[in-house]
Amino acid sequence: MTNRAARIQASLQQAFAPAEVMVQDDSAQHAGHAGAQPGGETHYSVRVVSPVFAGQSRVARSRAAHEAVAAEFEAGLHALSLRLLTPEEAAKS
Questions:
Q1: What is the rounded distance in angstroms from the CA atom of residue 85 to the CA atom of residue 53?
Q2: In Å, how far from its chain's centre is CA 36?
Q3: How far does CA 80 lie from the centroid of its chain?
Q4: pTM
Q5: What average pLDDT values come out for the chain (93 residues) when binned by 10 residues?
Q6: Distance (Å, whole) CA 48 – CA 50
């Protein structure tokens, strides 16, 4: 069984065929907060760079990312911090 970060990364890669995908477990920073679990794997930061996002609003991008990892939310994922960019937007940042 793979860890949650690897599963999130695989789901995002499948959904968006990204040029870049980064998944970071931030759970230790949220210890004691709502949704935090002793074993971690509850809070993540995600950066995805994909041409799929062209022409989409931030809300549409966020909804698509949440849909891609819906199974993880059902299995205990509590929070995602999302940075979802087109390749052109990523080049500017």
A1: 7
A2: 17
A3: 6
A4: 0.84
A5: 87 96 81 57 92 98 97 90 97 91
A6: 6
